[in-house]
Predict the 3D structure of the following.
Amino acid sequence: MAAKPYSSTADVLESARQRGEAPFLVILDGVEDPQNLGAIIRTAEAAGAHGVFVPERRAAGLTSVVAKTSAGALEHMLVARVVNLSRLIEDLKEAGLWIYAVEPSAPQEFTAIDMTGPIAFVFGGEAGGIRQGVAQKCDGLFRIPMKGKVESLNVSAAVAVTLFEGVRQRSPERQAR
């Protein structure tokens, strides 16, 4: 039983339109840990994202653990469940969004991406990362630079780093420059 009803892709895009903002979205490819999903929803809400997309299969759903971990953010964040992430990406592209996958081996750093327009970020699951077919549908790949010995961040940490770069780029002060 879902802790909250799922939204549709149209609901998420309409939310951005109603707020008069370019869509700012999160797509999760295989995030299975409900605590990670809850933390991602909390971060997405705090960053002003318009929605989070999860696949129907091989992914955490909106459980009570997700709701608790989100610390109330689930009540304010639209979460859409989709059958096919590749098809979602195609639909979002048709709606005018740029889609970027976060991939540790990508040559380009995340700060080089223009996050001021309509954009969605794809993050991979804990075990396998982003599936190749999903990554190929994206407009580009970027990475978060790692200075230590580990090769990547936990998915919820990667979402936080990326979305708050988007917050920085979308700030009214920066837009006025």
About this structure: The helical segments are 9-18, 34-46, 64-69, 85-94, 132-137, 155-170, 172-175. Residues 9-175 form a domain with the Alpha/beta knot fold (CATH 3.40.1280.10). The radius of gyration is 15 Å.
